[in-house]
Structure formats: C-alpha cells, structure tokens
Amino acid sequence: MISLSPDREDVHKYVRDLEEVLIRTMADFGIDAFRIEGLTGVHTAEGKIAAIGVHIKRWVTTHGFALNVNTDLSYYNWIIACEGEPVTSMERLLGREIELAEVEDRIAENFQDVFGYSRAQAALTYVRATDTRIYMRRDTTSWFSHNLGMDMPLVAYGHAGYPLLMFPTAAADYLEYERFYLIDAIKDFIEAGLIRAYSINSVNKYSLLNRESHPGWKVEMLTRYDNYIMDEVLPLIRNECGQDAKPLTTGASLGALLAANTYFKHSDNFRGVIEMSGSYDIYNYLESYYDDNVYFNNPMMYLKNLDDDYHLPRLQNADSIVIVTGQGSFEAPDRSREFSSLLHSKGIPHRLDIWGHDVNHDWVWWRKMLPYYLGEFLRIV
Asked: Active site residue: 11, 27, 81, 82, which one?
C-alpha cells in the first residue's frame, strides 16, 4: 500500500514497475523471467509465475501481486489462468523448496531500488494460501496516572513500525477509533509492520467540554494531560519502539487540537502531526478566562509569539505537518486556513489541504484522510 502522488501518478508505469521488481527478484534466483506484451504479469519459458492486480483510489494503492514460490500448482487444475497460459513456480523451476523469508528480502530490496523508497517503506505483507498472514496485534493496558489522578487506558495496534499517537474526538475514549473503523482503514499499514498505532483517552469531558467546571480547572487539566503524555505515554512508546522514537501525532475534530498541541509544544520529541477537521484556538471554551495554562495550551497563542533559538528553528525544518479539512456540513475550513496562515507567518513548512464541499465533519471522510496522509508520511521516513 503506497501513495503514488505527486510524481508517480501513472497506473501503467506502476504496474510495469511491479513487474520489474519481480523480474529482478527472479534473476536473483537464477530464473529468466520476462514480460509479454498485452499480458500483465511476469512470465517464464515454462509458464506464468506471478500475477498482478491492483486497486488505486486517490492515487493510494492497495492489493498488489501474487508470486508462486512453493505454491501447490494442482490448484490451477480447477481454474483457467489468464489467456489459458500454463503456470509455474519457483520451486518447480529450481527443483527445491524456497525459503519464503529469502524471497521476501529480495523483493523488498528490489522494490526499494525500483521505486526509490527506503528499506522500511519496502516492507511487504504477504497473504499466502496456507493462511500464514500476520494479523493485527492488539494490546491494551491501563494504569493509574499520577499526573491526572485517574486510571488511563491505552490500546496499541501492530507488532512493529513507526509510532502513531492518536487522540480521540470530543469526550470520547481510547477505543473510539476502533469502534468507528478508523483503525480498520489503516490496518494495511499496521499489518505490514509500517505503523504501530497507540490510542489514548482524552480528558475533554473534565476540561474543555465540562460546562460545570471553572475555566481555570479546565486548562489545569490540559496541562496535567500534557504532563501525562510526556511523563507516562511517551516513555511507554519508546520502551516498545526505541528510545529515540519520535511519534507522529494525529486526531480528528477536538482530537486534532490535542494532537497539534502535543506536537507544537514538543517538536523535539515528536516527528509531526496529521490534523483532521480541527480548530486550534481554545479561547471560546473558557469564557474570557486567561492564565499561563490558557496560553501554553493554545497553539494560536503561543505559536504567534514563538521567537526563540530552539523550538522555532526546529519547527522551521519540519517535514511532516498536515492540516486537512473538508468544506461540507459541520466543517469549519476557515479555522484550518487561519492556523495555516499563522504557520506561514512563522516560516513553518506544512501542508494545507481543503477537501471538497461534499466532505463533511464525519468519520467516513476521516477514514479516507488518515490512510492517505499516512501513505505520504511513510514515503519520507
């Protein structure tokens, strides 16, 4: 699953490149493989050895190819292959069983060379006839947060990959992204070992969305929440992903604010942020109340005055800031434009995407946005 934007938006070239990856891989094993004009796939003198079938939407690909390594070719007695061509396998051509891991490594290396991707981006997930696919790992945990004075659960999805820290919308909990199928929308990245996603609870029901609470307490909770992330969540992620890990943050709606606040306050500990359908000024929640906690949890305030020799230069070298919103029902694209304008004024590079007037403030669109921008992000890590 890769993004072909912006410089590979050519379906035919993509398919031909997949064929080239497989042809080179066969050559690594001493197999003479080639193309046949008008017949997609990879062929040998004894028959077809690999088939290709892709799906592309918004220039993000899914599916891919099927290579016969140690395949039981008797299966093909029950089907008619394309154009009636005979089929073969690496095992038949070489006269021995082939180690799948060895083939996978060679495909990944050739994928890297043909597509110009890093080794991590060239990692592949295989679905085999023996049903040995690596399915998504899911781990939940919970502990009493000394910063917040309450139990805080967390769920992690995946066995390896770049860490993604996910902030829920509104007053929702750590399982919201699973319930609304956003995890399912990015499962290809997770199952391939490219992303390990961590989803946490918010404290919005105790802070910004608590109408009974004093504004001073609302922002005090935001500061404690920030401490919880830095003192408790980030060490857990680094314990699993490496001590130098700098997670990407993301969230939709009010979660976009929390993801942005975490990244922009701690850009020395986080890589970037994907903000979906967000608003980045908390002042409307606070009834004109103001103190230091308001300032330091309001990106529209502290970024406006940021002019130091540490944080600002770091942000001015950022490569993974995305602001995306729609223009449909319940969206507020001007809030994203305003935040983008502020970043421009500070020389902070970022991507602002305003999707169409049919794009509403709703899950169906966030399930399209996040996999698209994760695909973009994985091209540069």
From this structure: 82
